[in-house]
Amino acid sequence: LGVLLNQARLATTQVLSWTSPQIYRSNDKTAYAYLRWEGGTGRPFAVAGGMPGNGSGSVSGRVFYDANKDGRVQADESGAQGIEVVLDGRYRTTTDAEGRFSFPMVGVGRHQLSITLDSVPLPWGAADGAVLGVDVPLRGEAHAEIPITKVEE
Questions:
Q1: 10 shares its domain with 84
Q2: For residue 134, what are the domain limits?
């Protein structure tokens, strides 16, 4: 939006005389306003691990220390903080203080979850079947529990 304001006009008139032209100032005031607008549509959000337009859901879960090696979270098994979780070998996130992770906007369909072994503290390591498959529903959430177990000495 722009505004242009002119408070007075300056004009010269030629009088039929041998003298120079007369200059006068009017009391007319003028205001101009102009507005420029451009319309357009935005771009869709990027969908991790899927084709644009196929819909999306999300993946969330928890990485936990599986002390009894049963693959299920027990009351005395805590979450693993700072573990890097990888979606489809490409998208990465890190677990929070309670071992939780989340991937928003994931394409619908089957996806693979894994952990980066370098981020797992010793003496812990990946459990058998370190790659976990999840099915992401349209506008839904897939949930995964990823165990890490003590390495045998």
A1: no
A2: 56-150
